[in-house]
Specification:
With 258 residues, the chain is mostly helical. It has nine helices and no strands. The chain starts with a helix and ends in a 7-residue tail after the last helix. Bound molecules: zinc ion (ZN). The site of zinc ion has 8 residues, from loops.
Length: 258
């Protein structure tokens, strides 16, 4: 029966990925995500219903607009496929559990925020607050269904704790991280804190480790200057995703330490 959930979540992930593409393009440009309907950025021809099927349409159209042949960015199918894999992976990891919807909102939010941060070096607060509210609502439902209010309390404390650490870092040296990263830290603390404090620590350290490794590589290969700002939100998202999917395996040796 788990297979049904995994396939179902994968298909929902494709559709949500398609919606995230709209969010990723429009929200940082302060455009509405509901209207007007999607159109080709080059010839402004509206995207037909049959050309709006995630991944499939892009492949059938060979990555080009039907009316003007203008290339459609690879980013669209990549986001849709990534979202499908994140959702299917979360279904496999959490199964039929009320914490699954909270994690799906969390992961979809991370995907949108990381893509925007990578392209534009901003983390729109509208998206952060929406994801925070969505994760919070579903975690309250999970806490109520399983009577696990102590986990919710730990999650809230982790959110406050991570926020405080980043807020102080930001206050001391705003060059290291932007205020968007400070806001994002509350979402990371809440979602990972629900899984356990060890997941918060794992997410935090792997984010910085991944950031350091990629940073050193880019500076060594002269693709980035030492004083260039980095999209820290991308690494926070990668670290958090690692904690969600591989946390129980990575943390297994530390199990006995609580
Ligand atoms: Zn076109």
């Amino acid at each position: 029966m788990l297979t049904v959930l995994i396939v179902g979540c994968g298909l929902v992930g494709l559709a949500i990925g398609s919606f995230l593409n709209v969010v990723i393009y429009r929200v940082p440009r302060h455009e509405s995500i509901v209207r007007p309907r999607s159109a080709c950025p080059s010839c402004h021809a509206p995207i037909l219903e049959r050309d709006n099927i995630p991944v499939v349409s892009w492949l059938l159209l060979h990555g080009k607009c039907r009316s003007c042949q203008h290339p459609i960015s690879m980013r669209y199918p990549i986001i849709e496929l990534t979202c499908a894999m994140l959702f299917a992976g979360a279904a496999a990891r959490f199964g039929y559990n009320w914490e699954l919807p909270a994690m799906l909102v969390f992961l979809a939010g991370l995907l949108a925020l990381a893509s925007i941060d990578l392209e534009l070096m901003v983390l729109p607060k509208g998206i952060i607050f929406t994801v925070l509210a969505g994760v919070a609502v579903f975690l309250v439902v999970a806490a109520a269904v399983y009577n696990e209010w102590h986990r919710l309390l730990i999650a809230v404390l982790c959110a406050l704790g991570w926020f405080l650490v980043f807020f102080l870092l930001w206050a001391v040296s705003p060059r290291i991280l932007g205020y968007g990263d400070v806001r994002l830290s509350t979402v990371l603390g809440l979602a990972l804190g629900w899984l356990g404090i060890r997941y918060v620590i794992l997410g935090f350290f792997s984010a910085n480790l991944i950031g350091a490794i990629i940073g050193i590589f880019l500076i060594a290969t002269k693709k980035m200057r030492r004083d260039q700002p980095i999209p820290y939100g991308v690494f926070l998202a990668l670290g958090a995703a690692l904690a969600v999917y591989a946390g129980s395996e990575l943390l297994a040796p530390f199990q006995r330490y609580g």
